[in-house]
Specification:
354 residues; iron-sulfur; 16 strands; 4 domains; alpha+beta; Alpha-Beta Plaits
Length: 354
């Protein structure tokens, strides 16, 4: 494949013919601030924060969706470029984005970090008056605060392009763009799967996971693991506060590529600290009908004796093995091996089809 050669900030760069200016710069270790852009999700270039100067071009171009072309000479940090970025961010702040500068859950938002990087603390324009819009929080997992929304539409791209749900859409309210978030009281009647990928994409916290309000970044640690819910093997980080799992965040694994479903994000860990969770085997007393705790050795001996008795009396066909989709391939292999050799049955199935 023939490479495309260009110059970025005086540095010779070679990239794929499919690269944009932004991706070519990223591969070369050159940072270009961005806001509405999210790789494989959104490149509508509405924020104008990623503008750069191309030699010979009369106007600044957006790096996120402008193809890198042979012989381009690009400047990413000229006074003209920096002034344009500050103007773009000032306009966003004036159009209702000022609330998004505030820290969320003890951490600066991505939007606030970009503003700080570009030297913008407040808008140089008169802030447009806005009608108060209520927070939409009928969904038990997600909420939407319109006062924090900057209409970057990353959430729409995450829902439509990445998750493939096509539930979130951009709308209009007069001359303003809005996000129609289906998180109200009738959320069950919508096609929303509550996967949370929209909140993950949001740079301001306008869309957020409700459990995120229960901790601050300084209070938690993260542990990489595999989601236990099905056989896909999505990678995730368990967020731990005071020895208790309080959240789950997607990691960029080979099967999930930084995404999670509602089960992985909101249903894969609460049972760990549940008061209803069994931590020891229970055996029923035939005389009283009451359960009592026992050791694993005793419990396994009882199960093995009972299974053996059924097999010897009625034959292996009277037994069956059914594997859980939460089990690893190795565990399931051992189960079927035990069923065929110890139970002497071919009645084997699993629920990994969910």
């Amino acid at each position: 494949m023939k490479l495309t050669n260009l110059v970025i900030d005086g540095q010779q760069v070679s990239c794929s013919p499919h690269d944009t200016i932004l991706s070519a710069a990223h591969k070369a270790g050159i940072r270009i601030p961005k806001l509405c852009f999210l790789r494989n999700t959104n490149n509508i270039a509405s924020c104008r924060v990623c503008v750069v100067e191309v030699e010979g071009a009369s106007r600044l171009v957006t790096a996120c969706n402008t193809p890198a072309e042979e012989g381009m000479v690009i400047t990413t940090n000229s006074p003209r470029v920096m002034a344009a970025r500050r103007t773009a961010l000032s306009l966003i702040l004036a159009n209702g984005g000022k609330n998004a500068l505030e820290a969320r859950d003890g951490q600066a938002t991505e939007f606030a970090r970009v503003c700080r990087e570009c030297g913008v603390e407040s808008s140089e324009f008169q802030v447009a008056p806005q009608a108060e819009a209520p927070v939409v929080e009928g969904n038990p997992f997600l909420s939407y605060d319109p006062s924090l929304c900057i209409q970057c539409q990353r959430c729409v791209g995450a829902c439509n392009k990445r998750a493939g749900n096509h539930t979130l859409v951009a709308g209009k309210q007069g001359v303003r763009s809005t996000i129609e978030a289906p998180f109200g009281p009738n959320w069950k009647a919508t096609d929303c799967e509550s996967c949370g990928n929209c909140a993950q994409a949001c740079p301001t916290g306008a869309l957020s996971m409700r459990r995120r309000a229960g901790y601050e970044e300084s209070q938690v640690t993260r542990t990489r693991t595999t989601c236990p819910h099905c056989a896909v093997g999505c990678q995730l980080d368990l967020v731990v506060k005071d020895g208790r799992i309080v959240d789950a965040e997607p990691a960029k694994g080979p099967s999930n590529q930084g995404l999670l479903c509602v089960k992985g994000r909101s249903g894969s860990f609460d049972f760990v600290s549940s008061s209803d969770r069994l931590t020891m085997p229970l055996v029923k007393d035939p005389a009283t009908g009451e359960f009592h705790e026992t050791s694993w050795d005793e419990a396994l001996s009882i199960v093995a004796d009972r299974f053996g008795a059924i097999r010897d009396t009625h034959g292996g066909k009277a037994l069956a093995a059914f594997a859980c989709s939460r089990s690893t391939n190795e565990d399931i292999y051992l189960l079927q091996k035990m069923a065929r050799t110890a139970f002497r049955t071919n009645n084997i199935d699993n629920c990994a089809r969910v």
